[in-house]
Amino acid sequence: MKIDQYIFDAKTLVRQQHSGVLSTHSQSVAGYPFGSVVPFYMTPEGNLVTYISQIAQHTRNIKGNPKVSVTIFDTLQDDSQANGRVTFLGDAELVEDAHITEQYLALFPRAKAYKKTHDFSFYQIKAERIRYIGGFGKIFWINKENWLTGSAESDWQQVSSGIIEHMNEDHQEAMALIVEDQFGIQAKQLVMLSAFYEGAHIQADEKIVYLPFEKLCLNAQAVREQLVAATHAARANLSPAVVNE
Description:
Blueprint: H1 3-16, E1 19-25, E2 33-39, E3 41-42, E4 48-53, H2 57-64, E5 67-73, E6 85-94, H3 98-107, H4 114-117, E7 120-133, E8 139-143, H5 144-147, H6 153-170, H7 172-183, E9 190-192, E10 199-204, E11 207-212, H8 220-238
Antiparallel strand pairs: 1-2, 1-5, 3-4, 4-7, 5-6, 6-7, 7-8, 9-10, 10-11
Pfam families: CREG_beta-barrel, DUF2470
Protein name: DUF2470 domain-containing protein
Domain DUF2470: 160-229
C-alpha cells in the first residue's frame, strides 16, 4: 500500500468518528496516564480540535504537560483488534479562531449551550506523529510532514465555504439521493456542514453523517467530481430495475 493511500484511509477513519480517548499526563497521580473520552473534529490540514471545560481533569493535565495522544477507532465494529484505529500524538494548545468555532459548532450544535454552564475553551492538538493500524498486518507510523495536507487552511476555508453554499442552495435533490443510497436515510431536511479534502459532513434531519470521497480532493473541481459521481451512483442504485421482456 502506498503511503498516500494509507494516510487517506487513516484520515477517513478519523473524520468518520466524532469522539476518541484523550490521554494526558496526570498531575494528581504523577507518572500515570489519564484517559477520558472527548469529542473532536479534524481541521482540513489534519490537526484535532476539541472543546473542553477548564475545570475538567484532562484540561488541568494539559496545562501541566501539553503532550497528549488521542486514540480513535470505529465504535460500531465488533472486533477491535482486526479493525482500523489511529493513535494521534501531538501538542495541545488553547486556540481562539472564528472558523474553528463555526465549524465545531456546526458539527456539534449542542456544544453551543456548554459555555453557559461551564468555562469551555477550544484546544487544538497539533500533529506530531500518527500510528495507523488498518487491520492485521497493516501497521504504519506517519510523520507530521506526510500527515498534514494541502494548501494553507485559510485558502481551503474559502474553497469549502463555496462548496457548502453551492450544495445547500442548488443541490438538495443530489444530497437526498446520496444520503439515501449510502446511509439508508430518507431525509426531509439536508444541510451540508463541512467539506474537507477527504469527504464532507451532511446533516440529514437530526442525524449527521460523513460522506467519504474515493480519493483526496485538493480543489473545488475535484470535490465536484466526487459529488457528481456519488449522485450518479445513487440514481443508478435507487432506480427500479428494468426487466426486459
